[in-house]
Amino acid sequence: MYFNGQYASLKSWLEDKTKEHKTQHLLVVLGPNNSHFALSRGVGTHRNRLPKGLVEVLDNLRTDSKSVRRLQLGANGSYWLDASDGSRSWNLMGCYPDLQAYLKEHEQSRNVAVRHSYPVRLQCTQPVLPQSLNQIAQ
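^ that's the sequence the OP posted. Answer follows.
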């Protein structure tokens, strides 16, 4: 694995010979500022420098015997999480106003999914978004 000197704790966790990570059951999410989350089904999780609110959500999921299906980490501590029971949690920290509006509009729907990433500057002041968020959902 090559992380160019970043994500050292993640690299150590993934290379730990006492754990048998199966790639078909491995979720790795890399975020800004060395933040990351990894889930290896049947082995456990590894996380580093995650936003406090997200850590609380993850702890509550674990307490309720639920798990993470999808997770996205963004600028300034923003995140979006889809849990195994279909519930979703997010805090976009004011960085993605159009996406926030889209998620709020569709929060009752279990069919909404942000399936594609799009280029975003790492400052919250002016995120670069596609012309229409409908393009993302399609």
